[in-house]
Design goal:
The protein has about 525 residues and is of the alpha/beta class. β20 and β21 form a beta hairpin. The protein starts with a helix and ends with a strand. It is built from 15 helices and 21 strands.
């Protein structure tokens, strides 16, 4: 039988499940019946895709590298995110961005014929659900040996303040494991999911969180090599925020407030704020017995916000009572959109209320407030919520609730930026009749970087094989800053922050551009 026909039969015999590339070589039976081959027949070995014929690619089958049909070797990627519950807009938008990039690449021929498939699971921004999804994605096999990664046995919060290890023993990838978990949404969900993924030596790519723990520190030990971040960290967003507040007249730590979520996400933002203040004001340190004022709401429970807003109002009243003149106060908000809208509304209503404090403290005229939200907030949903509130009455007229509300973005302003990746994104959004947003743009860019790594890789797609490919990616020319890129010592693609201000009509104006080299204002 001609060789080309034999290899076609082999490719046809390669079978896959919906997740992973689980091979059951039925070729011997097929070939014996149709081609009369011997029982010792074996498929064509390969090292690269180019070693195979037309329509075939090089893949791992039962630990051997052999040629299989490209259409039978999809690249399965898992994503866990909330598309239900209080913060569903975050997951819905992240998922949209990833799907836009996958559909775009599949329409262009996939990865040399391989199609990209997204295995999505709704975790409702719930840590246990995110961990369960990670275990399903990796088809976990629980062993009895010690964990391979230190982060696996490190206690992390689940719910109700209880912290437990992900596992006290090693976890292995199962036969149907995905290649990568991409675009996980949130810090409290990440600290339960990431340890599972990297313990099984699966790639954890482009998580929608700027947390340092596990993703950007030494917590994971050698397993950190399986983590690739797209976005700037919360610590970098915090530094950009403090630089902004300094530009706006901030004079000391007493004039800083943190409104944050009462979990690991809030901790990441607050710790970044403290570090950023220390770096920016080395001559005005925070006394050892003092701290930056902090007000914390409960994750997925916006009804917990009013009590925190009331406590913040008491702090601001005390600040005005103990000082003279105008007080410029910066509020860094490590929050989600629903809680953010409620907090800003409550503070503004208190500031301009015609009550006894107005006469004694003159809070309407002496207090100048700036609210800066980190990128995870869900900028578009935050904007929509504030615009819906309208404005608050002040002694000098109506003040929009959007006034002096900022967001430190980790992607360019899609409403005005003309870089290649933003232009491509906007075209896809229009073609799909979808609503654009910063979160879906982040999902799209993260997926584009991931796809670039897949395209640059020639040979079987395994997590370990892909690591050096990502670390040596050439300049992708996406137009998102000169500092963008991976390296063997840097697994964070971008360190840029784009500051935006929310306008009264809900649009976003570009305010500043920040890199580790400093901040530049567009004003």
């Amino acid at each position: 039988m001609p060789g080309a026909i034999v290899w076609t039969l082999v490719a046809l015999a390669y079978d896959t499940t919906v997740r992973g590339r689980v091979a059951t070589m039925k070729s011997c039976i097929i070939a014996l019946v149709l081609a009369g081959c011997s029982s010792t027949f074996s498929p064509k070995p390969c090292a690269l895709d180019s070693d195979c014929g037309s329509g075939l690619v090089c893949e791992m089958v039962d630990l051997d590298q052999v040629c299989v049909r490209a259409s039978d070797a999809p690249i399965i990627v898992g994503e866990s995110a909330p598309i239900s519950g209080t913060n569903q807009a975050l997951g819905t938008q992240m998922k949209l961005g990833i799907e836009l990039a996958f559909d775009e690449q599949n329409a262009a021929g996939g990865i040399r014929g391989r199609q990209l498939e997204l295995d999505f699971r709704d975790d409702a921004y719930d840590p246990p659900a995110a961990e369960a999804a990670a275990r399903a994605f990796t088809d976990v096999d629980v062993l009895t040996t010690p964990p391979k990664c230190p982060s696996t046995a490190l206690p992390e919060p689940t719910d109700g303040g209880v912290s437990t290890p992900v596992s006290t023993t090693a976890l292995d990838r199962g036969a149907t494991a995905v290649l990568t978990e991409l675009g996980t949404v949130g810090t409290p969900t990440m600290v339960r999911a990431a340890p599972v993924v990297i313990e099984t030596h699966t790639l954890y790519f482009g998580a929608f969180t700027g947390a340092t723990k596990i993703l950007r520190d030494t917590t994971a030990g050698d397993c950190a090599k399986y983590v690739f971040n797209y976005r700037a960290s919360y610590a970098q967003e915090a530094q950009a925020t403090v630089d902004l507040f300094q530009n706006r007249g901030l004079t000391g730590w007493q004039n800083l407030i943190s409104f944050d979520q009462n979990d690991t996400y809030g901790d990441a933002g607050y710790n970044g704020l403290v570090a950023a203040y220390a770096a920016t004001y080395p001559d005005s340190p925070i006394p050892s017995n003092q701290s930056i004022a902090r007000f914390r709401y409960t994750r997925n429970d916006d009804t917990s916000v009013p009590a925190q807003a009331s406590a913040a109002e008491q702090y601001l009243a005390s600040l005005l009572a103990s000082t003279s003149g105008t007080q410029f106060v910066g509020v860094m908000m490590t929050d989600t959109y629903g809680a953010g809208v409620e907090f800003i509304q409550a503070i503004r209503q208190w500031q301009f209320a015609n009550d006894s404090q107005q006469q004694s403290l003159q809070k309407a005229t002496r207090l100048v407030l700036y609210f800066s939200n980190v990128s995870f907030v869900g900028p578009n949903a935050l904007s929509d919520g504030l615009v819906a509130l309208g404005s608050v009455a002040t002694p000098t007229g109506q003040l929009p609730y959007t006034q002096d509300v900022y967001v430190s973005q980790v992607v360019p302003n899609y409403q005005s930026d003309t870089s290649d990746v933003v232009t491509d994104y906007n075209k896809l959004i229009a073609a799909n009749a979808a609503t654009p947003g910063f979160t879906s743009l982040e999902g799209y860019i993260a997926a584009r970087v991931y796809i670039a790594g897949l395209l640059a890789h020639d040979g079987p797609f395994t997590p370990d094989a892909l690591i050096p490919t990502f670390e040596n990616l050439p300049d992708l020319s996406l137009g998102i800053g000169a500092t963008a890129g991976f390296s063997p010592t840097n697994h964070q693609y971008s360190s840029s922050v784009w500051g935006t201000a929310i306008e009264p009509n809900g649009s976003f104006s570009s305010l500043y551009y920040w890199t580790p080299a400093g901040i530049s204002f567009f004003e």
